[in-house]
Amino acid sequence: MALRVGLVGAGGRMGRLLAAAVLDSDDLDLILSTEHQDHPMLGRDVGLVAGVGACGRPIESLESGMHAAVDVFLDFSLPAGTARLLELGGARPLVVGTTGLNAEQTAALRAYALTAPVVAAPNFSTGVTLLTELVQLAARVLAGYDAEIIEAHHRHKRDAPSGTALALARALADARRVSLDDKACYGREGAVGERPAGEIGIHAVRAGDIVGEHTVMLAGLGERVELRHVATSRQAFVSGAVRAVRWVRGRPPGLYGMRDVLGL
User: Fold this and answer.
1) pTM (two decimals)
2) CATH number of 126-231
3) Beta bridge partner(s), residue 45
4) Burial class of 246 by CB neighbour count within 10 A (0 to 12, 13 to 18, 19+)
5) DSSP designation for 69
6) Per-residue confidence of the chain (264 residues) as pLDDT tens digits?
7) What is the 8-class DSSP label of residue 52?
8) Beta-carbon neighbour count of residue 50 at 10 Å?
């Protein structure tokens, strides 16, 4: 029997690609596609919205009641949509790619994971998952080197810095056994003075249609190491998210990441 998927955020950029991928899969069944109640795609055939042809299933609101038949929820919406899903999810497995969650929403996500398996990641790319591993190794080996993270995304991205940049910064801070809250510097302006030892710089660029670029720079005296990931298509995120949907069903309750999905 095909795995019954509920997609939250079906009308967004990622949502449309995810809908197409699930509809094209032999072992997944897109039984529910949702958007917020004011979304212009509400009521439209999700297959047409995804560009793969009519499938006879309209985009609905999450409150429609169809969520009762869902095996796994796939959420690439906005923080408010994720918060509503956590209220209605009914302890079903979740795969969450929404970024920009506030402290209260993050706490609600962690509480949900006490009763159901949740894969949450700011970036579902296999390459970014590997980048995070390499950053931790480099941060330990180059312990005294200055660390800077530069991320770039399209002009429509709402949160900054990106969730991926923050995850990379946390990985770096954890490897050095320091608190990111104590060491983070979000951009610089004016007479900021000499760079403090151990500072982790985080900088955001928003321009054009950039899919996603992340560079971690570790600079010492006489040399600099740069670890970089460039996404040229959102398909890199789609394949990882669909892989997580297949992986999460049947797992014990808990909060997982792409490292778990990839078996790292």
Assistant:
1) 0.80
2) 3.30.360.10
3) 58
4) middle
5) G
6) 789 999 999 999 999 999 999 999 999 999 999 998 888 999 999 999 999 999 999 999 887 766 778 999 999 999 999 999 999 888 999 999 998 899 999 999 999 999 999 999 988 999 999 999 999 999 999 999 999 999 999 999 988 999 999 999 999 999 999 999 999 999 999 999 999 999 999 999 999 999 999 999 999 999 999 999 999 998 989 999 999 999 999 999 999 999 999 988
7) S
8) 25
Question: Measuring CA to CA, how many Å separate 17 from each of 9, 30, 60, 99, 214?
Answer: 11, 13, 17, 17, 22
Residues carrying an active site annotation: 153, 157
**Amino acid identity for residue 186 in this structure:** Y
Count of C-beta atoms within a 10 Å radius of residue 23: 20
Task: CATH number for 3-120+235-261: choose from 3.40.30.10, 3.90.79.10, 3.40.50.2300, 3.40.50.720.
Answer: 3.40.50.720
